[in-house]
Structures are given as C-alpha cells and as structure tokens.
Amino acid sequence: MVRTAVAFSPGHISGYFKRVEGSYPTTTGSVGAGVVISEGVRSTVEPAAETDVRVVWQGHVNAGSPPIEYALERLEVSACVTTECRLPIGAGFGLSAAALLATLTAVNHCFDLGLSVDDVAARAHEAEVVHRTGLGDVAASMSGGIVCRKGPGIHAEIVRIYPKEPLYVVSLGALPTSSVLSSPEAMARIAAAFPDRCPRDLPDLCRLSRGFAEKSGLVAPEVRRVLDACDAAGVPASMTMLGNGVFAAGSGAEQVLSPFGEVYRLRVAHSGAYLMK
Question: Which domain holds residue 59?
Fold first, then answer.
C-alpha cells in the first residue's frame, strides 16, 4: 500500500444516445456518439479510517459523492478522496464518470488491488448506472477520440476517430442527469430521435447531435438562443447531453459562443484514465 496516489481521467461530451436496459448494471448502458475531451478530473487518494470525499471546482468545495462512496464500499476500502476539475459539474461534460475512473485508478494503485483497466471501468460503470449519473460515459472515456458506441457497457464495440481540430463549448448551467434518465417519457422521445449511423468527423458529430437534440425535445430555451446564433453564423453546433450547454466546431465557433459565457477550448483526448503519481 502506498501513502498517496493521484490519477486523471478525461471527460466526455455526449452528442446523442439511446438507453439499453439490461438485467444487471454490466448489461445496462447506452449506445451513441460523443467526444472524449482533454479536460477532466484529477483525483487524489489517501488511505483513511473512514471514507471522506471532497469535490473541488474552481475553489468551491462540496462534500460527498454517492457514486464514489458506493464504489469504494464495494471494494471494501476506506480513503480520503479529493477530486478536482475546471469544467462545470452537471453540465454535460461526463465528469461523474471521469471522477469515478480517476478515483478508482488511484485507489487501485494506492491499495495495490491488482485490478485491470477493464476491472476499474466495470466498477465505475456500475456506480454510474446504480446512481443514474450516466450510461455510456465510462465506456467512452476508457480511451480517447470521437466515439461511437455500438452496444451497452464497457465491452461493447466502440469506433474511435481522432480529429486534430479543437472543440468549443459554453455552459449555461447544470442539468441533473438523473432527472432525465428517470423519466420514461423523456427516454421514449430520446429513443425515437436516435440517429442511425456513426459520425464521420467533428462537424458531422455536431450535425447528427443537433438533429437528435431537436427531435428529442431536450433543447432548453437558453440553449436555443445559442444554437440560433450558431445557425446564423453557419457554425455546426449542438447541445451537450445531458447539460445546459452547447458545443460547436469550426473557425468561427469561439467568437459566436463568447457572448453567452466563458468559452472552453477543448482538444480531443487521445487516451483514457492514467496514474499521475
């Protein structure tokens, strides 16, 4: 056992998805497409008599994380955990999955558990499904790229492509994922809106995602204003799933998004969670 371990996991912006209900968490998840992003979550883990989780975002500290606490309890370990991120929480950046992947990667090293990468991801995916905080973010963030997930869970086929151009995102606030995933009506609309193919590149992901956002009825009024501005400028854009935000591609994207809030210029990640020290 080591005294302290630190790990990082990239986040994931989902463009479109469809829930797949299984008999167990391992067979429950989603299919769909999105992009794994260079920003994510850094987690510091130390052994402790009792588990204590702190979530730090831009100097603000919140106590507790039920998914992380659940995952550690399942592993029968207790630790002091501090997760840190720059991007807004609950805004469609897949940070719940990233926090789980980073934390469990660090826990695995800190407690010398001998878990494989797949074992860590399976534990993280289970915690996400049980707590309704995500369906496919863990599978996507196991590696990088624009991802197209063709089955539920971490072992399904995933197509990945790695464009070089940046992605621009503006967040307009949080949208609790569980409120949508718990609604049968919302999930029925989402299933009916699901595109029938994988994206070819970043602008194509924006286009497919936009069609999905419109047909699913998930676009909030504040998101609509940003999308209208993108349309007027000819900038491919869509809504972050699930979050009150907009992601866009192309040379004019940053300028169009900037009047609506802080614009995050993100790169497409090329790898998944990794141990930092």
Answer: 1-277
What is the per-residue pLDDT for 173? 77
Domain count within the chain: 1
Largest CA distance in the chain: 57
- Of 148, 110, 106, nearest in space to 124 by CA: 106
**Which residues, in sequence order, are CB contacts of 35 under 8 Å at separation 6+?**
12, 13, 15, 145, 146, 147, 167, 202, 205, 247, 268
DSSP H stretches of helix in the chain: 66-75, 95-110, 117-131, 137-141, 177-181, 184-193, 202-216, 221-233, 253-257
Residue 187's pLDDT is what? 82
pLDDT in tens, 48-97: 999 999 999 988 898 999 999 999 999 999 999 999 999 998 888 999 99
- pTM of the entire structure? 0.92
Which helix (DSSP H) or strand (DSSP E) does residue 37 occupy?
Answer: strand 29-47
Residue 87 one-letter amino acid: L
- Region 259-267: what's the mean pLDDT? 96
Can you tell me whether residue 169 is helix, strand or coil? Answer: strand
CA torsion sign, 262 to 268 to 274 to 275? negative
User: Average pLDDT over the chain, rounded to whole?
Assistant: 93
Cβ–Cβ contacts within 10 Å for residue 27, how many? 15
Q: Which residues pair with 167 in a beta bridge?
A: 266
CB–CB of 98/85 below 8 Å? yes
CB count, 10 Å around CB of 9? 35
Helix 184-193 vs helix 202-216: angle between axes, to the nearest 10 degrees?
130
The CATH number that applies at residue 255 is 3.30.230.120
pLDDT (tens digit per residue) in 132-152: 888 899 999 999 999 999 999
